[in-house]
Amino acid sequence: MACRHCADRGLERGALAQYRQLVELHIKPHLGATKLSTLTIPLVRQFEDDLHAAGRSPAMIKKALVALSSVLSDAQEGGLVVRNVVRDLWTRRTRPDKKRHRARLQVGVDIPSREEVKAVVGALRGRWRPLLLTAIFTGLRASELRGLRWSDVDLDKTEIHVRQRADRFNDIGRPKSETSERTVPIPPLVVNTLREWKLACPRRATKEIGPDGEPVKELHLVFPNGQGKVEVIGNIVKRGLQPAMIAGGVVRDTGEKDAEGKPVVVAKYSGMHALRHFYASWCINRPTDGGLGLPIKVVQERLGHSSIMLTSDRYGHLFPRGDDADEMAAAERSLLS
Fold first, then answer.
1. Among residues 49, 79, 71, 77, which one has the least CA distance to residue 61?
2. 199, 184 in Cβ contact below 8 A?
3. What does the alpha-carbon distance between residue 148 and residue 220 come to, in Å, rounded to a whole number?
4. Is the pLDDT of residue 321 over 80?
5. For residue 172, what is the DSSP state?
6. Considering only CA atoms, which of 132, 122, 113, 304 is closest in space to residue 235?
7. Residue 102: helix, strand or coil by DSSP?
8. What's the pTM value of the predicted model, to 2 decimals?
9. Alpha-carbon distances of 170 from 48, 146, 229, rounded to whole Å
10. What are the two backbone dihedrals, phi and then psi, of residue 73, each rounded to the nearest 5 degrees?
């Protein structure tokens, strides 16, 4: 019932599939025989313990609880239950005096450093070079890169218009949110690289599918696969990003040895979002440190965040401090000179 309601409300196909999977694989096996009206906080806590005992990760347990809370919310709207006990449990756990703060993103841990990005850029080759350079210097999400059309790239004005994206099923649709539709400037290196890539890019058109499931027009994607269709995210990461990191020496030691006794290394950063984090830090850093020195509102707009609070929560600690000793000394000299 809840899944059907979600579909009726226009929930994206990928989110709906994940919702169904959580219900079928995690909720039904443990709570399938329990009436929603008899569900209590102790039962929800037992559900958490059962998932943990079954080897589920903390992240997966949290997703299962979110799905269960959604089921209870639908039941509340239908008058089937009085309370959402999952929400009640979260309220207890997130009192101000007990609320935990999300760990800050760290350069060199979550965010590639300038030196690491330089090494990756120097190692980029072939068809992945245009895509990864664009990711590094525009901060576009992987879904936005995969759905990018040549008609949305203005090389003369040196800007990219984000107007659509490709979901994990490779379906083309609107961006993540209203604020995700944006215009992002591109630097000369990306402009020149895209000019060259446009001549070599596979030109086979793929069809854009309308709401009724019928093709509405042809798309010429900027970063398609060999058949001109939407590229799979796994290929970008496994065949493009990670090999470039390894070639550039941006790696971590697994602690294992190969047949010749040499250390086995893997790419230090596992996904495309690391490049988006770098772009955010590049926008924030002072020009004297090789960054753009942009104010937080502009950074929000460049990233397409839904609110300035999201940008601040995620990257606020990267902004230069107002009490920086060198800056205060320079301001003092300027004032008194």
1. 49
2. no
3. 9
4. no
5. E
6. 132
7. coil
8. 0.70
9. 33, 8, 9
10. -65, -45
Query: Residue 280 and residue 285: Cα distance in Å, rounded?
Result: 9
CB 228 within 8 A of CB 204: yes
Radius of gyration for the alpha carbons in the chain, expressed in angstroms and rounded: 24
pLDDT at 66 over 90: no
Lookup: tokens for 104: 């800050």
Distance CA 193, CA 121 (A): 12
DSSP H helical ranges for the chain = 2-8, 13-22, 28-31, 41-53, 58-77, 85-93, 114-123, 128-138, 142-146, 188-200, 233-235, 242-247, 273-284, 296-303, 308-315, 325-336
Tokens of 215: 């093709």
Distance of CA 243 to the CA centre of its chain: 20
Rounded CA-CA distance 285/111 in Å is: 13
Amino acid at 3: C
Q: Per-residue pLDDT tens for 253-283? A: 989 998 898 999 999 998 999 999 999 999 9
Question: Beta-strand (E) ranges in 220-336?
Answer: 251-257, 263-267
- Check if the beta carbon of residue 250 is closer than 8 Å to that of residue 116: yes
* Confidence at residue 167, expressed as pLDDT on a 0 to 100 scale: 86
Tokens 């330089």, residue located: 118
